[in-house]
Amino acid sequence: MARSKSRQFGLGKLVSVLALVVLTAGSVIMIDKKVALFSRAATTATINVSCASITISPAKKAYLPGEQVTLTVQGAGLVTGMEVYFAPAVMDMTKPYPADYWDPIPGSYSLASKKWTGTWTVPNKNGEYVIVPNLKQGDGGFCSGNPGYACANCNKGTAAGTINPGIQSCLGCQLKLLVNSNYSNQELRSGIDLKSYWNLNPGNSWTYIGYNTFTSTTANFNSRLSIEEKVNACGYTLTPLRFTKDSVYGYWNNKNTTDPGTANLRFLVSYFEPNTAWSENTFGALYSKVYSFPANSTLPISELGPINPTHNVNNRMYDTFPFSYFYYAPYLYAERYIQPNWNLERVDRLYSTKTGADPICPGNYNQATDYPRYWNIRYIEDNVDTPAYSGPVLRLRQIEGKYPLNTGWYIREDWYLAPNIGIVQMDIKNLVSLCPNTGVRDPDCDGLGPMANPPAKMKLTGYYRGDKGLSVSVTPETVSKTGKYYLRAYYVENGKNIGYTGYLQAKSCIGSSCTPGTPFKWGNGDGTYIWMNNGVGVADLSKIRTLLTGEYHSYFRPFIDVTPADTTGETTLTSTNLPWSNQVVINVTP
Known about the structure:
By secondary structure, the chain is an all-beta fold. The protein contains two helices and 39 strands. It starts with 17 loop residues before the first strand and ends with a strand. Strand 32 and strand 33 form a beta hairpin. About 45% of the residues are buried.
């Protein structure tokens, strides 16, 4: 996870033909190691060439890494030659990149039939790719299918500052290709169901204890991850992950030698959602929103803090301007079904927000400060030992940084996921200056095993999964209206009591045969609420101004957070009904 510092087209089919630019001599050179996609086109009054079709055989939903295919491009008009290139589909194609960005596909062109044919071995890495032909005409003009110039206002180059305006448009074409090792016989292979490992359902929560040695002394901390109700943000159905902590040393934004650690995070993910531009078999993050750590709070882990719109990790990740994802979700974290050791590596982009604008919606991100981001994830079978869980896990090894690497922030995080629980451990290490491009590299730069001594680590101490109600009890059962009582709440798993941490929702009534009324956030009656810490909360009845005596019949369940009041651009979509606890009876006396 970053640290401080459309419709889905059928694969193997022709993507809709769009008006695409032709560049003239003197335009920026996008590639210089081969015949450039745009650099050799001569000034010309008329473009008489176009792409009639591009096809691939065999036509499939997805291709295995290293699979061999045949490509055919049919030209139209006075086509004198043709070249075909491919590139990862998630780079920003409107800006110049290193010489190895576009790679040629070998093939031959028939002047008589105006047809190009080539045999190609698809890349060995999982990912989305785009194939584009360059069609030549006799006076040196080119018509290209680069989708980087197919966006609004791009057909004349005006949306890309590096391209001269006023250049003619033409009819080009492109083909999008998915390489996915999880596909077999046109369908996703059955395998490990990652949804059962993540468990990101509203109301679920996890608490952790950890240490931080980023600074000169070791500091211990507690952190909490909770899942809010789903929201609509700019037309997307998203699940917010809320990270809070009890000190600046905790996760998210652990304090280190260059960062004060004064931030909390909401991470808004598309969690295997249908009806998106990408596959519902994937999940990833579309936005991140940062909040100021409530340093003056007496119980900071219970608070998110006020939104901090100027923090540089308020990011939008869901497109790459202008070529958007078509299978893998943006900021990808998981495909639904995988085999052990599944891996994806790619470069995409991060967009920060404009000052004063809604921080996430289209048009409000700051394109001037966006930059490429390197992302490499791999799921590895492993084992862990934590206070709340010991046993087999999948370890999600994440390496992330500003691209090219070693030009900015650079980090590795390993998240350990247990079946039917979620994240049970996190290891965090800053890789800046440890992984030089040449010379001796730290073993954790490239190693697939667990990190030996990560500067920050946290382990699971408790969790709640919304499949059943809490087991609750009170002591004493009889209390005066000016006294206190203790509520104990546990999530029971395999005969083990796991203490609940968080706020509760309650419903209650007075009398032996009463019906509970409207649920409410359990509190002291004075505008403050009672935080359960590892299964224990204390109710002080003296704070309630008007309290009737009698026999209270009460039920409890975890309270689910929603979008904070100071956060714009979101509408809550769900109202999850978690199971209620067993009934407890509290006798309140004068």
